[in-house]
């Protein structure tokens, strides 16, 4: 999706900010750039939309050299969220959200409808908020507007430059949770700059740890926590996060018990209504005694929706998924997730469904364990 090839940025012979950078950001992933001040993370991100031009090397998006693109059009087609939010104080929330579509002369009816959809996506009622101005919103609400404004023109790529760092701790955690949920739904390619390792571990698919204009280690949060490349990475991660007790976590420590289930004898219409009501695209199928039977997806239901004689048990999947035991280790769980597209693993005991472990709960558990193994993440 985004590819850096031998990219270097220098302001003079003695000020080299980026050194021969090679990086491939995959389509649909959330990549965080992190490192100490002055390491080049923000410069790297700003070269993607040509706010900063590289001194040499090539940056491609979907195979196209961005130096051949009109920089104004490139920026209008790339979402951009910054720490300062940058909402226009004299505009309503709806006008702020629809700014780029208006500049692109899109259909007003469509971008007005899009603004309502995006407000609903982050839990802000359009009827209440779209006519307000930024000063009438809290800091956290304003930052949510900043995020969805970047989505208004439906860009494939979103750049986020420490967007939550100015918020209070509670608002910051809430926005991080929103970011995880939002990305699961929109599946955009996101490059996210942060100075906070906990934040990177929590939200990222992969983390690029930078120092002096170079990427020192690029890997998943799990692998970076388990296999830091060198002393710099170990020091940057911190002893607390690397404590060996974290590896004693088991599936039951990361269990999410609020699972959307459906009885196996439900009709396909009933299952479809459950999915729409709960805003999910898959369901876990159980018997009346909570015995775990399988899973079904919206696609499965929709594909057979014309046959009113079928029940969920007729279309559920009973084989192509993994299940875990409550005592399975965090390493076992990480192996289950590795190289697969699954987002959740059912946890069962005596064939009964206890809950699920998701990718985010796995990472969250690793990242936020106190020393001594007390799990106080939430």
Structure characterization notes:
The longest helix has 18 residues, at 169-186. This protein is of the alpha/beta class and 378 residues long. Helix 7 (139-149) runs parallel beside helix 8 (169-186) and helix 9 (197-203) runs antiparallel to helix 17. A 6-stranded mixed beta sheet has the order 6-7-8-3-9-10, sandwiched between helices. Strands 2-1-4-5 form a 4-stranded antiparallel beta sheet, covered by helices on one side. Strands 11-12-13 form a 3-stranded mixed beta sheet. It has helices at 41-48, 71-76, 93-97, 99-103, 108-121, 126-129, 139-149, 169-186, 197-203, 221-226, 231-237, 239-242, 268-278, 298-303, 312-315, 330-337, 359-367, and strands spanning 2-12, 15-25, 30-34, 56-61, 64-65, 78-82, 157-161, 189-194, 206-211, 214-219, 261-263, 282-286, 292-297, 344-349, 352-358. Residues 370-378 have low confidence and may be disordered. It is globular. The protein is built from 17 helices and 15 strands.
């Amino acid at each position: 999706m985004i590819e850096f090839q031998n990219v270097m940025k220098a302001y003079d012979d003695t000020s080299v900010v980026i050194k021969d950078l090679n990086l491939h950001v995959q389509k649909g992933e959330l990549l965080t750039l992190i490192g100490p001040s002055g390491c080049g993370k923000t410069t790297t991100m700003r070269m993607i939309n040509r706010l900063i031009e590289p001194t040499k090397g090539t940056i491609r998006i979907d195979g196209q050299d961005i130096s051949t693109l009109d920089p104004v059009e490139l920026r209008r087609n790339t979402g951009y969220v910054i720490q300062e939010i940058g909402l226009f104080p004299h505009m309503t929330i709806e006008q702020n959200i629809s700014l780029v579509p208006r500049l692109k002369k899109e259909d007003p009816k469509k971008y007005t409808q899009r603004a309502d959809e995006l407000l609903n996506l982050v839990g802000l009622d359009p009827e209440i908020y779209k006519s307000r101005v930024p000063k009438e919103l809290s800091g956290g609400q304003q930052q949510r507007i900043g995020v969805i404004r970047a989505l208004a023109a439906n860009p494939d790529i979103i750049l986020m430059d420490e967007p939550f760092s100015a918020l209070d701790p509670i608002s910051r955690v809430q926005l991080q949770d929103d970011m995880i949920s939002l990305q699961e739904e929109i599946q955009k390619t996101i490059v996210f700059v942060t100075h906070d390792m906990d934040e990177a571990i929590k939200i990222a698919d992969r983390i690029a740890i930078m120092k002096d204009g170079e990427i020192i280690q690029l890997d998943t949060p799990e692998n970076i926590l388990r296999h830091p490349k060198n002393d710099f990475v170990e020091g940057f991660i911190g002893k607390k996060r690397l404590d060996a007790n974290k590896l004693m976590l088991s599936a039951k420590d990361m269990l999410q018990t609020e699972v959307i289930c459906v009885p196996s004898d439900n009709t396909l219409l009933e299952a479809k209504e459950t999915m729409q009501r709960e805003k999910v695209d898959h369901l876990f199928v159980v018997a009346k005694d909570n015995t775990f039977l399988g899973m079904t997806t919206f696609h499965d239901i929709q594909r057979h929706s014309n046959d009113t004689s079928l029940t969920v048990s007729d279309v559920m999947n009973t084989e192509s998924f993994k299940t875990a035991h409550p005592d399975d280790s965090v390493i076992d769980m990480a192996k289950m997730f590795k190289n697969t597209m699954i987002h959740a693993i059912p946890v069962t005991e005596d064939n009964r469904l206890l809950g699920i472990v998701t990718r985010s709960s796995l990472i969250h558990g690793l990242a936020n364990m106190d020393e001594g193994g007390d799990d106080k993440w939430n």
